[in-house]
Amino acid sequence: MPSDPTPRAALPQRQLSFIAIVGGVLAIIIVAGGIALRLKDEHQLKDWTETQAIPSVNVVLPAKEAPGGLLALPGRLEAFESAPIYARVSGYLKSWRVDIGSQVKAGEELGVIDTPELDQQLNQARADLASSKADAALARTTANRWQGLLDSDSVSRQDVDVRTQDYASKQARVSAAQANVDRLVATKRFARIVAPFNGVITARETDVGALVNAGGGTGPQLFSVSSVDKLRLYVHVPQEDAPMIKTGGTASFSVPEYPGKSFTATVVGLADSINAASGTTLVQLLVDNPGHLLRPGGFANLHFALPARDGAMRVPASALIFDNQGLRLATVDGRDTIRFRSVAILQDLGNAVDIGSGLTENDRVIDTPPDGLVEGDHVQVIRPAAKVANHG
Question: Are residues 383 and 321 part of one domain?
């Protein structure tokens, strides 16, 4: 019986069709997987590119201004009391008893002026006084005599009044002559030059035999006396710092002649006005000088310990932005977006600055902000905000 070949030939063909289908499915899977992988890589690349386009910034938190900040200013030392001594009478210097550096007491004699002309004027005034007294005595006797005659009706009332008036006039002349004598006596006392207060002689501008003219401050100075047990220290404080200087406060200072040595002064007075030319106010301090180490007229480098100012915040100087919109700071809000703040500097400390207003302790300030930042830009904060180091 003959065999049928058809089923045997169809079997390999079915297998080939199945294999082809499986291969097609695998190819589709491979192609789809490749496309998916490529799309994923493209998406990751896009995300990476977008991430790299966002600026990365470092932020810091402002610190309150620390108390103990120093305000360094130049000052000058002056004597607590200082008086140039001028002549009140003219003549020749007869003698002097003190020289530069001499310690003197109030009322102590410094020198004597020989005043021959004044002596003659005083003698003449005394003679005029004696003559006036004699005239007044005669006028009194005459007035009394005429008053007695009036009682007997021997003279008229008019004549008696004339004699009485003459006596009153002579008495007035006596008073004037006495006043002139007293004036010259008082002037003669100025021939003896005395110290007005306890102190030290800081200048002697005359010598024995020198012609002295009564100047009242316009003539040549004879001596200069200064009280140096205490000294006054004057300093000009800038207007923005003046409100922090209070009467009773203290300041330290140094002088060139004693390097490394510090002295203390107490604020005793403020001018309470601003000099329009310099923009400063004058402050007076008092310095004890028991050993006379400090000298009037000297330079002093003064340091005020300033209190912290209300609302002042300290940020790094590198955080400042100065452009056509003025002085600003770039801050980052809770959504990591840029917010600019216009600020004003209270104090420049070199690597840090004190900002007067517009900031709080919780504001995140960008340190060294990159160029091209715009209000509302999104940024990436590299690390958590650190507090600004406050060195006072």
Answer: yes
Residues 346 and 365 in one domain: yes
Residue 181: what residue type?
Answer: V
Q: For residue 365, is it within any domain?
A: yes
As beta bridge partners, residue 223 has 85, 204
Instruction: Report pLDDT digits (tens) over 207-232.
Output: 998 888 886 556 678 999 999 999 99
Q: Which residues pair with 70 in a beta bridge?
A: 305
Q: Within 10 A of 47 (CB to CB), how many other CB atoms are there?
A: 10
Report the C-alpha gap between 287 and 302 in whole angstroms: 12
Longest CA span, the chain = 218
- The whole model's pTM is what? 0.58
298 and 267 in a single domain? The answer is: yes
The domain total for the chain is 3
Query: How many whole angstroms separate alpha carbon 239 and alpha carbon 199?
Result: 36
Q: Looking at this protein, which amino acid is placed at residue 211?
A: L
Tokens of 147: 């008053």
pLDDT at 374: 82
Instruction: Please indicate, yes or no, whether residues 234 and 300 belong to a single structural domain of this protein.
Output: yes
Residue range of the domain that includes 131: 116-190
DSSP state of 317: G
Q: Kindly report, residue by residue over 287-332, the tens digit of the pLDDT.
A: 999 888 999 999 999 998 877 666 778 888 888 888 888 888 888 8
Backbone angles phi, psi at 183, to 5 degrees: -65, -45
- Give the tokens for residue 97: 């008893």
